[in-house]
Amino acid sequence: MKLLLDEMYPPALAEALRASGIEAGTVSDVGLAGRSDSDVLAAAEANGYVLLTENVADFARLAADHLTTGGHHPGVLIALSSRFSRRRAGISAIVSAIGTVVNETLEDRLVYLERPPRSVP
Q1: CA 30, CA 83: separation in Å to the nearest integer?
Q2: Is 57 left (phi over 0), alpha (psi -120 to 50) or beta?
Q3: Is 120 helix (H, G, I), strand (E, B) or coil?
Q4: Which residue ranges make up each domain of the chain?
Q5: pTM
Q6: Could you give phi then psi for residue 50, rounded to 5 degrees?
Q7: 78, β-bridge pairs
Q8: Which residues contact 37 (CB under 8 A, 6 or more apart)?
Q9: What is the pLDDT of residues 13-32, one digit of tens each?
Q10: For the chain, N or C: smaller number of CB within 10 Å?
């Protein structure tokens, strides 16, 4: 899986994903910082990236519109801010959640990531 992180995510998340064996980059890495959501989705599609975002309102609509007009995309992963923190302490939970879907077929899908269960000491 090649993963493109929307601009709300820190570079540390991309680093943690790469350390776990997932090819990941940020919108800044690919020159899309400050660009529109439709530009980000188009670039993800053109370059074979699954997109990770918490912006469900915009990307759910854009992905649906794209499919309605005959387009396709590699997939959109939604990490809701109510479930996942973008702070350093939350990075491992996001990486773990992505790890549960890394081998799934994500093409043309919008997938809401689930927070992994907390381990009991």
Answers
A1: 27
A2: alpha
A3: coil
A4: 2-108
A5: 0.92
A6: -75, 140
A7: 53, 112
A8: 55, 58, 59, 62
A9: 999 999 999 999 999 999 99
A10: C
